[in-house]
From TrEMBL:
A motif (GXWXGXG) lies at residues 15-21. This is Peroxynitrite isomerase. HAMAP family: nitrobindin (MF_01297). The lineage of its organism: Bacteria, Bacillati, Actinomycetota, Actinomycetes, Streptosporangiales. Binds 1 heme b group per subunit, that coordinates a highly solvent-exposed Fe(III) atom. It catalyses: peroxynitrite = nitrate. Pfam families: THAP4_heme-bd (PF08768). Its EC number is 5.99.-.-. Belongs to the nitrobindin family. CDD domains: lipocalin_heme-bd-THAP4-like (cd07828). Forms a 10-stranded antiparallel beta-barrel structure able to accommodate a hydrophobic ligand in its interior. In fact, this fold hosts the heme group, which is located in a wide surface cleft.
Length: 165
C-alpha cells in the first residue's frame, strides 16, 4: 500500500528505528536508555506512531521498561504538523510544529492529565535525519521544573515500513 501523497514531507520517518540515548532531569539521576520507534501508515494522510523505551545498565543490557507512547502524526498545509500522543501514565499531548526538509520541531499546544498522573505541563521535541540516523532531543516542564532537557537519542533504521494485512 502506498503512503498518502500528503505524507511526502514526513515519509522519511516510515519504518522501525532502534537506538540509545541519555535521560536526565533535576528530579532523577541521569541514565542511558534504549528505544524502539515505529512509524507506519494505512494509506490515509497520517502516520501511526509507537515508541517503547527501557533503562540500560552499564553494559547496555535492558534493566526495566521506561516510557511508552502511541499516537498519530498529521501533516497539514504549508508543511505544518500536528502530533497527538497518549501515554499509559495518564497524559495526553497535542504538539504543533513544522517540517523543514528532514528537520521537525514540535511544541505542546495542549497537555491533559488524569487525576493520578504526575505533573507535566509542556514539551518541546526536535527531530532530524542526520547521516541516515534519526536524532532527537526532548525538553519537558514537569514536577515544578521549567522547560529543560530531558532526553536525547540516536536511532538507526532497522526495518522499512511493512503494511499490515
Amino acid at each position: 500500500m502506498d503512503a498518502h501523497p500528503d505524507l511526502e514531507p514526513i515519509a522519511f520517518l516510515l519504518g522501525r528505528w532502534e537506538g540509545a540515548g541519555v535521560i536526565g532531569y533535576p528530579t532523577m539521576e541521569s541514565a542511558n536508555f534504549g528505544q524502539e520507534v515505529e512509524f507506519g501508515h494505512n494509506g490515509k494522510p497520517f502516520l501511526t506512531y509507537r515508541s517503547r523505551s527501557w533503562l540500560l545498565d552499564a553494559e547496555g543490557a535492558k534493566v526495566r521498561p521506561l516510557a511508552t507512547e502511541t499516537g498519530f502524526w498529521r501533516i497539514q498545509p504549508g508543511r505544518q504538523l500536528e502530533v497527538c500522543l497518549a501515554h499509559p501514565t495518564g497524559i495526553v499531548e497535542i504538539y504543533v510544529g513544522e517540517v523543514v526538509f528532514h528537520k521537525i520541531e514540535l511544541q505542546t499546544d495542549i497537555v491533559a492529565r488524569t487525576a493520578s498522573a504526575k505533573e507535566y505541563t509542556a514539551g518541546h521535541r526536535l527531530y532530524g535525519l542526520v547521516g541516515g540516523s534519526l536524532m532527537y532531543a526532548y525538553d519537558m516542564a514537569a514536577m515544578g521544573q521549567p522547560l529543560q532537557s530531558h532526553a536525547s537519542a540516536e536511532l538507526k533504521k532497522v526495518a522499512d515500513f511493512q503494511p499490515e494485512d
